[in-house]
Specification:
It is built from 7 helices and 5 strands; from the N terminus they run H-E-E-H-E-H-E-E-H-H-H-H. It is α+β, with helices and mostly antiparallel strands and 165 residues long. The chain folds into 2 domains: 1-38, no CATH class; 43-159, Enolase-like, domain 1. The termini are far apart.
Amino acid sequence: MYGAGDVIGDPMFVYVAAYGGALAAENALRGNTRRYDLTALPRVTFTDPAVASVGLTEEQGRAAGIEAIAAILPLAHVPRALAARDTRGFVKLVADAATRQIIGAHVLAAEAGEIITEPALAIRHGLTIEDLQSAFHPYLTLAEGVRLAAQTFTKDIARLSCCAA
C-alpha cells in the first residue's frame, strides 16, 4: 500500500505532497527503488521578513554526534540588502567541522524562501563550505549572502571589498 501527502502526517507542504505522490507512484510501478528522503527539506514561513530553514541547527547536529560549526552573516553585509534599504535579518550556515559539509541553513530576510534553495541543494549533494565560497553568485542579489556567509567561516566579511573572494 502506498500513500503520500497529508495522509502520512509528514510536513504538510504542497511540495512535499507532490514529491511523495510521485515517489509513491514510481515505487508502486518499479518496485520500491527510491527512498522517501526529507533530509534537505526547505521550510519557509512567509512573514515580514520571511524565515526559512533547511537541515540541522547546531544543537541538532551535536545531538546527532556531529561537531557542528556555524557562521552568521547579518544582512547589513549583503550589498543587495543595503541597496534595498532592508538589512533586517541574517544568513546562518551550519557545517560539520570534520568534513566541512553544509548540514543546515537558516535565513531571516525579505526573500528567505528564494535564498534557501541553494543551501538545500548543498545539503542534498554534500557540498562543503569551500564549494559555496567558490561558486559564482551574481553581485547585487540576496542569494549572494550564501557565498558571503560561507566566507564568514574563514574571513572577516566586514574587511572585504564588495566583490572579494
